Amino acid sequence: MMSDKDIKEYHDLDKLKSGLKKSNKYNYIRGKQLTDPGTGTRVYDIDNSRLPSVTTILGATKNKQFLKEWKAKVGEEEAERIKNVSSARGTCMHKFLEHYVLGTGCVDLTKIGQEARPMADKIIEIGLAPVEEYYGSEVMLHYPGLYAGSTDLVCLHNGKETIVDFKQSNRPKREEWIEDYYLQIAMYAMAHDYVYGSKIEQGVIMVCTPDLYYQEFKTEGVDLRAWKHKALKRINMYNELIHDEKERTKPMNPEDFFNGA
Q1: Which run of H or E residues covers position 206?
Q2: Quick one: which of 85, 59, 90 has its CA closest to 206?
Q3: I want to staple 189 with a disulfide (CB 3.0 to 4.6 A). Which of 50, 178, 200, 233 is the partner?
Q4: What is the mean pLDDT of residues 182-209?
Q5: What's the rounded mean pLDDT across residues 212-230?
Q6: How far apart are CA 200 and CA 162, in angstroms?
Q7: Residue 247 has what pLDDT?
Q8: Long-range contacts of 89-97, Cβ-Cβ distance < 8 Å, separation of 24 or more
Q9: Range with lowest mean pLDDT among 6-10, 46-50, 189-193, 219-223
Q10: pLDDT at residue 74, as a whole number
Q11: From the CB of residue 127, how many other CB atoms can be counted at a distance below 10 Å?
Q12: What are the pLDDT digits (tens) for 65-80?
C-alpha cells in the first residue's frame, strides 16, 4: 500500500507532464555512443565515423591542478564518494528534465530521486520559462572529422535559437570556474551550425544546487564567438596529444632500427 508521501509524489508528477511545444525544424542525425575499449573514453559512431566526445576532449586538455588540490584536501575516498553522488544526482535531474520537455512524466522515489526532483522543478520554473518551443532533447551533435556529443536541449529561448545545458552543482558556481561549460556550449553550437545550416545565437547554462539555488549563465554574440575560438584551440591541443601518444606507442619497425632510426 502506498504511503501518503508516495501518493503526493505521484500527484506531483502532473507538474512534470506539461511538456514544451515541439518544432520539427531540424531533422537530427542519430548515432551510437560507445566506450573505447582501449582508453575507456567516450566516443560516438556517426555515419560510420568514430569521433571523440566533447567531454573527452575537454577532460584531456583541462588544467587539473585544482582537482588535484581538492582530492589532496578531502582524501581520495571522500572525493570519489562525492563524485559518485553528484554524478548520480545529476543523471537523475537530467532524466526528470528530459521527461518534462517530452511531456512524458517521470517518477523516482529513491533517495537520489527525491533530491534531484526539486532541482529539476526549480530549473523548469525559472530556466525553462522563456522557452517558446524546442527542436530536440538530448540531441546528438557532431562536427564531421572532429568531435561529437549530446546536448541537453536545442530550443527557441526568448526568440533566439539556443543551446541549453543543465548542470547540478554541490555549491554555487563562480564564472571563472565554468570555462569548460562555455566551451561545451560553443562546440555544440559550431556542430549544429555546420551540420544543419543553423545560426545558433546563444548558449544558456542552467545550474541548480541541492539546496535549490538557481544560477544561469549566458553567452552570445562576440562572447560566444570568442568561446568558439578557445574551443578550437582545445581541439587542436587534444589532437596533438593523441598524435604524440600514438607516436610513443607505435611499434619500432626492425628495418628502421637497423637503418639507425
Answers
A1: strand 202-208
A2: 90
A3: 200
A4: 98
A5: 98
A6: 6
A7: 57
A8: 89/115, 89/116, 89/119, 89/168, 89/210, 90/116, 90/167, 90/168, 92/116, 92/117, 93/119, 93/120, 93/123, 93/166, 93/168, 93/208, 94/152, 94/166, 96/16, 96/120, 97/123, 97/124, 97/152, 97/166
A9: 6-10
A10: 65
A11: 23
A12: 666 665 676 677 776 7
Q: How many other C-beta atoms are found inside a 10 Å radius of the C-beta of residue 247?
A: 8
β partners of residue 133: 156
| pTM, two decimal places | 0.84
**Residue 244 and residue 230: Cα distance in Å, rounded?**
21
Tell me how far apart the alpha carbons of residues 221 and 203 are, in angstroms, rounded to a whole number.
10
CB atoms within 10 A of CB 67: 12
Q: Angle at which helices 111-122 and 76-102 pack, to 10 degrees?
A: 60
**Pick among 1.10.287, 3.40.50, 3.90.320, 3.30.390: CATH of 38-245:** 3.90.320
Nine cell digits for residue 145: 572529422
Interacting residues of 103 by C-beta distance below 8 A, sequence separation 6+: 17, 18, 19, 20
Cα–Cα dist 39/19, whole Å? 38
Cell numbers standing for residue 90: 545529476
Domain range summary for the chain, segments of one domain joined by +: 38-245
